[in-house]
Amino acid sequence: MSTSGYGLVLVGGVLVLLVVGGVTTGLVGSTGETGPTLASESPGSGDALTVTGVESPSEIRPGDSLRVRVRLENSGDRGITEPLTVRVRDEDGMVSETSTTVKLGPDESTATTLVVDTETLKPGQYTYEVDSGANSAATGAVAVLHPPAFSLSDESSGLVVVKGASATLTANVTNTGDYRGLQRVHFAIDRDRNGSVSAAETTDERVLSIAGGQQQTVEERVETTELEPGQYEYRIASENESVSGTLIVQRPATFNVLNASAPTRVTRGDPVTASATIENVGDVDGTTTVEFSGPNGTEPMTRTVTLDGGESTNVSFTASTANVSRDTHNYTTSTETDTATDAVRVESSYFEVSRLEGPSVLYVGETAVFSARVTNVGNVTGTQSVEHRIDSDGDDRPEAYGVEESVTLKPGEQTRVRFELEYTLIDDTDYPVEPLKLETYVYGIYSADTRASSALSVKPAWASGSGGSNGGGDGSSVSNGEKASLDEITQDKYGYYYHEVSGETQRQVREIYDRQPFADGLVAVEVRTREQIARQDYGADIEPGDEFDFTALDIETQQRVEADFDAQFESESGDRIESWDELAQAEYGTSYENLSDTRQSSVRAAYQEQFD
């Protein structure tokens, strides 16, 4: 493009200033004024061709023609024909010229444009002259501009980044020419580090428009999330040159757990001490939380560790095993990026209770002897209190009442514990057990680890001769095929007369009464109601004294309870509840599961009617 400038031409003794948007033109000043003089001209005769003005650009681009517009005048009284020439010269002489012929009548003026070919001109400053013959001449100047030329420089800095952070490649592109031009720039990173840049590793081109003599900065953001730590060559290229450099991606702070150790065995109650080396295998410093955890019963512990890249330190943790079960457990030491596990066997004594012996029937006032074998099946020597317990409150969960023995056993060693107790119906402050009623009770011998349990029936002293388990003698309790009265059954089981107990208890007593005689030499006190069987043997959630709804039990439990209840009697007559299968066999001659849906529904209805 042309830029504004000025030029001076001496025409006919008058100094001409030519400035028109980069084009020289006009008349300035008069003879006698001071100022720079580019050329001189001798006055011509009255009929001479006179140059009255010259217009030309002060700048042209390489390859453009120089266009010089000349204004001419014939001030004479006759017509003239004269040659008009424009010559462009450098400091070594003429370079190129062009000519034309001008014809003017008397007092006539004109303007003409001469085009000078400048293809051979290199960028620089040139002078030219306009020659109209012997009588008139003018001179001027023109600059052939330097075309756009671009230089590239790498201005990237801080190209050492931690993986996951971004880096910025920066380049400056400078136009060293005299006018605006376009330049393409692209960035590339050798992501696969194979020594060359593929098309996939090259970014989109940036097209820059830069004025002459100006500089522009261009940047490229490089994400390193997908780059492995290491060195990567990058290249910044323009259309005619390129620069390269190195991007270093550092490994972030990464904490590994090394050399983890803990004891392979420990006795329960003793502490477990574990240690490990924590090493930052990254290239930069960082902070991590080291956590130590174990099985249930172990409180997690933590340490905060700060390490430089490549630095390591040792950590240790001590945990209690008081609440840890006897088994092999994993203890772990971990950071955010690594975990090490140690298997520790927590050993302890384990007292197994077996071979329980005790009376099945206890007559009031007699001494009961309970014993059991206690074996340490654990792997360390231990000491435990072994207790005798009895369900004195009727909730089917035997309670401790202070009758115990301290036992110490080596691994594999065993002993037999023995408790000799006298039970009473009297509430005695010197006696540790709640007074027992004439009922059936669950009792057992317990260690801290296991138990052995059974049941006994408490009967009145006068029943001790009735054939019960504690001896013979005469009494009012009935067995061996004879039929007991309602009062006798109620007295044996509860210590009351039939009319003194609740309606629910009366109903259950009558069930026992109707099903007599008792089986296997049982006496009334030993015969359990359906409610007792459901609570004691099948865990039914029934509080003693509450109304017992047998049908509220699931069918499977009902049938099991009924089978246990029936086994206490010699006869299956009376109010025995028949099972689904028994009803199906009686009605249809096949098992319940072989029936159609309709017949199964009929069997279930018949089963339910037995409770109405």
From TrEMBL:
Composition bias, Polar residues: 591-603
UniProt superkingdom: Archaea
Database matches in InterPro entries: Ig-like_fold
Compositional bias annotation for Gly residues: 465-475
Region (Disordered): 28-47, 460-482, 591-612
Protein name: CARDB domain-containing protein
